[in-house]
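May I ask you to comment on the folded chain given beneath this request?
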Amino acid sequence: MKNIVLTLAAMLLPLSGWAQDHQLDINLKKAGAPIPSTLYGIFFEDINYAADGGLYAELVKNRSFEFPNDALQGWKAFGKVEVRNDGPFERNPHYVRLQEPGHPQRWTGLDNEGFFGIGVEEGKAYRFSVWARVPDGGASTLRVELANTASMGENHFLCQENLTVTGKEWKKYQLILHPAQTLDKSILRIFLIGERNTIDLEHVSLFPVDTWMGHVNGLRKDLAQALADLKPGIFRFPGGCIVEGTDLVTRYNWKNSVGPVENRPLNENRWEFSFPSRFYPDYYQSYGLGFYEFFQLSEEIGSEPLPILSCGLACQFQNDDEKAHCPVAELQPFIQDALDLIEFANGDVTTPWGKVRAEMGHPTPFNMKYIGIGNEQWDAVYPEHLEPFVKAIRAAHPEIKIVGSSGPNSEGEQFDYLWQEMRRLKADLVDEHFYRPYEWFLAQGARYDNYERKGPKVFAGEYACHANGKKWNHFYASLLEAAFMTGIERNADMVEMATYAPLFAHVEGWQWRPDLIWYDNLRSFRTVSWHVQQLYGKYRGSNCLSLTMNGANVTGAEGQDGLFASAVLDGEKVYVKVVNTTGKDQDITFTFTGLKKKALVNAGEGIRLSSGESELYKDNSLDAPVLFQPTPFSFEGEGKSISATAQSYSFSIFTFVVK
């Protein structure tokens, strides 16, 4: 009998916990640490077809015929087509020669498949451009079409226009196409017509006219808008592991990504062959989306740019041999790349790299404040390589903040060692990465509460909840990210910036998930994780406030019933973020201390992301893009204590007004 009573008592203990009123004490007497404008941001890496085939609006694959294994990869040639390599652009020498096919009923030309097809919309305009010449002089004509090869109609073409090329000199030509219907998988088709004189073609391109901000070498509008709507304070680019490269030759070289777009050389993407289970042998970087475009986008969406450069170490995951890396004694070219990048971003137009920026269309500096050196390196070789960069950048540009790395681990011997080394080198920030399961995120609510405040600040540069057995976007994983972020916010004096990763994924070309924003050739959707990031950015506030329950920070610790919470001040408003990670509604009393004698607190509006039990492992999708979205709610009260409910499985923001 005694054992039965004890068992029943143990069963009842959790029930009494669920029934209790959780009092959150918010101290308004003194505003806490200022919240950096950079606290919530975005991180771009060209994985999952994030650049070509994604954010970068170019619709033609292998537009300069430079794919190394097959110059016509992405193209279907018909008739008499020859690939040549003495073209007008030094770093992209290949082009195609179209010649008379030898019979009046035969045709010469090319089809381009695009990236998983070419998506076009009825009523929209598309700019076709090409560098071309007639090598023997005179004139020759092309017919340019957008076509649907699966059509049951009499004609394949959605639209067609003729383009006449004249003379022996290479010139750029363009025309505008207006497709007669919407299609997500059309092709671009080019015929040699008319007199069929030999014609040479290079850098064949197709862009929607309506790009982000109307740029000719532009970005896909809906995807760029999804970034702007986050109102990110920091923008880290271009990676990630592509900064390192599979080898140093294929690292992301920023100097190859600027200047005239037709002369930016192709680069092998480090993610092309990393996952043989999801293999994409045609995944290259055109560098059309390069450092100028990254800086320009940062400026347009109001973010501080944070470029990451190679420290002379190739990807250590892919290279065990020290010969794959640059010796410390030979790092000067890499160090000069970093110094030249600062000049490109911030230099006067009279400087060599400032002049390049100005010639590209931006004479005023980008006002870059941060630079990262290295990505996920580890062992002693990383600080050995980083140290000469730090010395050189400090000597030439003491105003620039330097971001180092704690490696690929979120804790452990290597993590501790690298943090110690970053303090020794006096890095300004340390980039931490953690792709971890449910249990880790549930246990990390207090991660930054006891970090050493002297020395570098934290940059949570890559993080996402990767559930064991459920490594895809779903509500519960996003909810735990929201819970973890209460600890980031509470420690805004220690954490200067944080960015979820990865950012983008094509539904037909992904290699890594979960990701923040998904898309096909015409549509996109914003995940629950995107909404979590957006809510934190929108309700960022100006200063932290002390928030405790029973004298302790609310971090999901034992006895706190799965609750996480943080509070910020924004003028007369107080935003309290509460994450309930459990399947039970929980009553909460918000108690405000430190008020002036006659001051009162009024309940304002609230906004909430929530899910039922049956939808925890679902997310938004292309067909249901708003299955989950923030929903306003109301709650009432006035005085020094106000009660409300944190719904089960919810991330809620309660707004209060101090009067």
